[in-house]
């Protein structure tokens, strides 16, 4: 098995892991008797397919509803995505496989130059040539990991439904607060308009009263002035009658 992997690596059809490279440097290459091996080694180098990255995807921008973040702090964008597959498998209790499914997928990626039937025969030949692993190990590992991922999807769906429910409740609360606040403000506006109307009426009444008082004061002052003038004229009769001409007043 190791010799065949080394041969594929030399043909640049697969990429060995760090452990496999160390093992290859410590042991000589061993050929696997298999039809078409030399042709495989001479086959043109196919483009290596990009492997799925376990790095978390960039989280979307955080939600702009601070009250929503308070209502469901565990359901933000970071909590819904970007979980490493290794963490998902560990949480689901997937046991360590002698030959993980990802390792077989990496091998299959390196054999894309072959047709599907030839790839299958090559893998089965490696399985038969190496007693350290069996294809059933990969099948079992793949089934367990698929089940773990399906369960993760169900949990994600449940979290999203919970988020939708809480969001709906929160929006209803926001609208209720808005309606109550709007009603209270409109009531205050109506009361202020009534107060303004009363103040305008009171000011008009007080203005009328002040102006009436001013008119009365003017009339009173005019009457008093006429009365005083009449008394002055009456008193002037004495000096006019008895004071000698040219005498000082």
Keywords, please?
coiled coil, rod-shaped, 69% helix, 249 residues, single chain, Methyl-accepting chemotaxis protein, mainly alpha
Number of helices: 9
Order of helices and strands: HHHHHHHHH
Helix content class: 55-70%
Oligomer category: single chain
Radius of gyration: 51 Å
Beta-strand percentage? under 5%
Tell me what the structure shows.
Residues 29-66 have low confidence and may be disordered. This protein has a domain at 1-46 and 99-133. The protein is an all-alpha fold. The chain contains nine helices and no strands.
Write the topology of this structure:
Blueprint: H1 2-10, H2 18-26, H3 37-42, H4 66-71, H5 77-80, H6 85-91, H7 101-110, H8 116-129, H9 135-242
Coiled coil: 139-198
Organism: Candidatus Accumulibacter phosphatis
Region (Disordered): 38-62
Brief summary of the model shown:
The chain is an all-alpha fold and 249 residues long.
């Amino acid at each position: 098995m190791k010799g065949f992997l080394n041969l594929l690596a030399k043909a640049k059809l697969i990429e060995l892991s760090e452990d496999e490279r160390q093992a290859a440097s410590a042991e000589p290459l061993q050929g696997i008797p298999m039809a078409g091996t030399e042709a495989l080694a001479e086959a043109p180098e196919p483009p290596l397919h990009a492997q799925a990255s376990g790095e978390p995807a960039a989280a979307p921008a955080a939600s702009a509803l601070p009250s929503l973040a308070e209502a469901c702090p565990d359901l933000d964008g970071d909590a819904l995505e970007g979980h490493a597959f290794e963490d998902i498998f560990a949480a689901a209790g997937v046991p360590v496989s002698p030959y993980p499914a990802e390792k077989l997928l990496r091998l299959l990626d390196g054999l894309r130059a072959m047709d599907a039937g030839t790839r299958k025969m090559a893998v089965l030949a490696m399985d038969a040539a190496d007693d350290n692993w069996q294809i059933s190990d990969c099948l079992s590992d793949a089934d367990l990991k698929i089940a773990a991922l399906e369960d993760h999807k169900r949990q994600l769906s449940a979290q999203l439904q919970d988020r939708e429910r809480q969001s709906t409740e929160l929006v209803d609360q926001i609208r209720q607060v808005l309606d109550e606040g709007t009603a209270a403000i409109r009531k205050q506006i109506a009361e202020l308009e009534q107060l303004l109307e009363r103040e305008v009426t009171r000011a008009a009444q007080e203005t009328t009263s002040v102006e009436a008082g001013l008119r009365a004061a003017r009339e009173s002052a005019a009457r008093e002035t006429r009365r005083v003038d009449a008394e002055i004229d009456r008193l002037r009769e004495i000096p006019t009658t008895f004071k000698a001409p040219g005498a000082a007043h």
